[in-house]
Amino acid sequence: MTLETKKNAFIELGKFLSQFSETENKPNEGVLGNDIFFDSFVDLIQLSQSHNGWYTPEQVYFAIGSWAKALTKENLDQWLNSYDFTAVTPKRIALILAGNIPLVGFHDFLSVLLCGHYAVVKTSSNDQHLLPFLAKYLMHIEPELADKITFTEGKLENFDAVIATGSNNTARYFEYYFKDKPSIIRKSRNSVAVLDGTETKEQLIGLGEDIFRYFGLGCRNVSKLFVPKGYSFDAFFEAMFEYQDIIHYEKYANNYDYNKAVFLMSNFQLLDNGFLTLKEDTSHASPISSVFYEYYDDLAKLEKRLVLEDENIQCIVSNNLIKNSVPFGQTQLPKLWDYADNIDTISFLLIT
After folding, report:
1. Which of 55, 198, 215, 334 would disulfide-bridge 48, Cβ 3.0–4.6 Å?
2. CB neighbours of 308 closer than 8 A, spacing ≥ 6?
3. How far apart (Å, rounded) are the C-alpha atoms in residues 192 and 188?
4. b or e along 215-227 (b: 16 or more beta carbons within 10 Å of the residue's beta carbon)?
5. Per-residue pLDDT at 295
6. Distance from C-alpha of 351 to C-alpha of 346, rounded to nearest angstrom
7. 319, exposed or middle or buried, with CB in 10 Å at 0-12, 13-18, 19+?
8. From CA 294, how far away is CA 231, in angstroms rounded?
9. Is the pLDDT of residue 155 over 90?
10. How far apart are CA 156 and CA 176, in angstroms?
11. pTM of this structure
12. 3-class DSSP state for residue 163?
């Protein structure tokens, strides 16, 4: 299979995904495979929450829409044009996927297939249905891909390299277990935001998207704020009010009640608006329904500190206060070339 053939298959997948949204599922004439896959995909989206309570239709539609926008010829060309795929020797690449947010492992799956390798996929128990469905669609569009994709529930065997994503604890296991294989082992990371008090209401509302999308379960969700000494949180809480309906979702509400109770029983001082707690804390990783914050008095010193803590940080959000920071509201919309943990997956796969 040529690279163009594989790219075209994913472009067709992007067209297929573009038909689905929270407001309307509408088949578009000319999209391949609709007669077989359209109604089944609508059913799967509606069933996703029964498979994983955090996968509400709203969150699944958002993930689908993000990939629909990413899988275009223009984006794929811009991403891949700087690489040389001519000397690739096909290998079997094991993918151990996370399941914290819908389709979180799709980028690795996409990268392996575009590079001409075989994908041996072990899905998370929390996300066992969406990716296999999309793989079936791809194999329908391009039958030669059928020999390139394997899903396994048992022990991973007969593979040449591995890309594995998990917690810090599972990462230690992965590093030991796969020590003799070329690998990318991804650990837990969090995203942070740096504020200076000049942010507009619209920017702070965007920050709310970075905090609340996927209920805060992703590594690209902001879980920590850095604010200047004397910072008033009034404008922040006013902007967060846009997301107040999140408390009506039972799993989120249960986490809010539990984590707030734990904090209060420990006599921690909290800022609270009824659906989000803010706690002063030096850690980057806050529990669901809570965001940690920390004061800074020197932006230059803070930037140096964040560089030193780079291995624990996925994204930094700011109004251009920090070099290479992400604009407010954009953390969950990475480009194809925005690699997780800043590890170039394509380059790894080309030399493996």
Report:
1. 55
2. none
3. 14
4. bbbbbbbbbbbbb
5. 98
6. 9
7. middle
8. 10
9. no
10. 15
11. 0.95
12. strand
